[in-house]
Amino acid sequence: MGRVDPVGRGGRVIAAALIGAAALVGCGPPGNVVTELGATGGVPVEGGTATMALPPASTPNWIFPIGAPGYLASYNSAIQDLLFLRLYLPEKKGAALTLDSPRGLAEKPRYGEGNRTVTITLKKGYRWSDGRPVTTRDVKFWFDLIKANKQEWAGYSPKLMPDDVKEFKVLDDHTFRLRLDRAYNPVWFTANELQDFVALPAHAWNPHHEDPRRAFARLMRHARQFSTFATDPLWKTVDGPWRIAKWTTSGQVELIPNTHYSGPDKPHLDRVVLKPFTTADSEFNVLRAGGVDYGYLPPSVMAQSAKFREMGYRIDPWEGWAITYIVLNYHHPTAGPLLRQTYLRQALQHLIDQKAISRVIWHGSAAPTLGPVPAGLLDTDPYPYDPKRAKALLAGHGWAARGGVLRCVRPGRGAGTCGAGIEDGRELRLSLLSQSGSTETSNTMQVLKSEFGKAGVALDVRQQPLNTVLGTTVPCKTGDPVCSAWQLGFFGTQGSWYFPPDPSGEKIFASNAPSNMGSWADPRTDALIRATEYSDDPAALRAYGREVARRLPVLWTPNPAYQVSALRNDLRGVEQNPTLSLTPQDWYYVKKGGAGR
């Protein structure tokens, strides 16, 4: 793409988006936003309702705190964490992330025996909403469920949790000890293994002491009954600060305080509403009219942010600890042989002008992804935008233009051939399934289609809602019917993958990893990942980042801010966590003068 030429095809698409967005901006403040208050000051008050906009075409659809494939959207886990407390929660601390959050259910873990054991003590005083105490047996209930049903848990990676725990020993009601199968890097184990631990109400969810497989199957049946999340008694026993008041099949979720919550951060608001929107433009219209208290500006209207400040909002980009990419299905019956060719992936990456897309389409609210870790941890781009290099790679491996589309003219496995599994005359055509609802994502896909096309690569793009894309782009084995459903997939309008504090890749790029959607399998990648797990040397993570960036398990694309938030000036206490967790229990309203809380 190079520079986006304003008279070129991509430029016209972008200009149309800008004109459309500008037309949406009206005059005057929305009716219920307090304009006389600035971003600071005011007297805190108790109560009230805050309505937060969900991302475009996003519908919360999973409440069970054990994730299932196809249900891994960040808003699902953010809601779960408000109902069922994890032992450790990530929190921003300066420029870094920490798991020392006071909101977690446990004290700091204590490692022993050369990092082969870890002892964990639960904080005292926590109770379930029915009055029963939260104990270590509730944590063990979770562990037993994932151990007995690990193949059905979306968080499972072979040889990791729960395989890496040889023994879970309950010492008393508040303390348990894990005996590990080897010594691990404590930073990695806490950030990427212990962060999954959650207490589940064993007394309410398994009153008849069923074995873990039967109990899990029963709980999963309830978890798939989307329409009953608000009424099913099962989900009413919580230990978090909130409970469900409403959960519609259209995706609107309403939370009210758990009056039995015993943690330090009790809610100030009476209700929090998480409101779905089909597109960013529809959200923008409602935000402009004052229909949401915590919304977002589409990147195309960033130039209008000053108007929103005048209307009584503060603008705050929500940066994520994340990377963004197009996932590749290596097991697709026809596209798989193409995508397994390293030279082809390199050529496609050279056709993605991340800098220009970030600047022009995302209006500076995105930045290039350089590899498998957040960009700030890498120092070079191994595949900068270079269409000439892309064309040379393809020509050098036996592809020639026929009717505007490249075809294989030198089939075979040797040097200078198209590669194994690619037959003579094969057309270089790929299909990309992308999430809908975002003008920026739609424009990005059209630019990629255009740039690929100029090099002779035909790219067919179709768009579906995010949940559909997530439910389709799942790991599969060669021959599985689901493997034929997609070739390339994109679910990164708000970023594709959000890391725990330690951004290693065992969940996304290790062989058979749960979120390795395209089934990338590479011994060198696996070895680099293992090094980050076992060694506390920071060089291990750097080596992993540099090498996997070059190996290209996916196509790197611009990483957008999760959103550019627009918040009412009188709504305070909002902290935008880089891992996308929510803490509405800390939110509160202020008023000008008078008595407060």
Describe the structure.
Helix 1 (9-24) packs antiparallel against helix 13 (439-454) and helix 15 (523-534) packs antiparallel against helix 16 (538-551). The chain is an alpha+beta fold and 597 residues long. Strands 20-19-21-15-23 form a 5-stranded mixed sheet. The longest helix is centred in the first third of the chain and has 16 residues, at 9-24. Residues 1-31 have low confidence and may be disordered. It starts with 8 loop residues before the first helix and ends in a 6-residue tail after the last strand. A hairpin with a 2-residue loop joins strand 17 (399-402) and strand 18. The protein is built from 16 helices and 27 strands.
Question: How would you summarize what this structure contains?
Answer:
The protein has 597 residues and is an alpha+beta fold.
Overview features:
globular; five-stranded mixed sheet; 27 strands; alpha+beta; signal; SBP_5_dom; four-stranded mixed sheet; 16 helices; 597 residues
- Helical/strand content category: alpha+beta
Largest sheet: 5 strands, mixed
Strand order of the largest sheet: 20-19-21-15-23
Low-confidence runs of at least 5 consecutive residues: 1-31
CA-based shape: globular
Strand content: 15-25%
Oligomer: single chain
Mean pLDDT: 90
- How many helical stretches? 16
Helical coverage, percent range: 25-40%
The radius of gyration computed from the alpha-carbon positions, rounded to a whole number of angstroms, is 25 Å
Summarize the helices and strands and which ones pair or pack.
Blueprint: H1 9-24, E1 43-45, E2 49-56, H2 74-83, E3 91-93, E4 96-98, E5 110-112, E6 117-121, H3 136-148, E7 165-170, E8 175-180, H4 186-192, H5 202-205, H6 212-223, E9 242-247, E10 253-257, E11 271-277, H7 280-288, E12 294-297, H8 305-310, E13 313-318, E14 322-323, E15 325-328, H9 335-339, H10 342-350, H11 354-361, E16 366-367, H12 387-396, E17 399-402, E18 405-408, E19 429-435, H13 439-454, E20 458-464, H14 466-472, E21 488-490, E22 497-498, H15 523-534, H16 538-551, E23 555-556, E24 559-560, E25 563-568, E26 571-572, E27 588-591
Parallel strand pairs: 2-11, 19-20, 19-21
Antiparallel strand pairs: 1-27, 3-4, 5-6, 6-8, 7-8, 9-10, 10-11, 12-25, 13-25, 14-22, 15-21, 15-23, 16-24, 17-18, 26-27
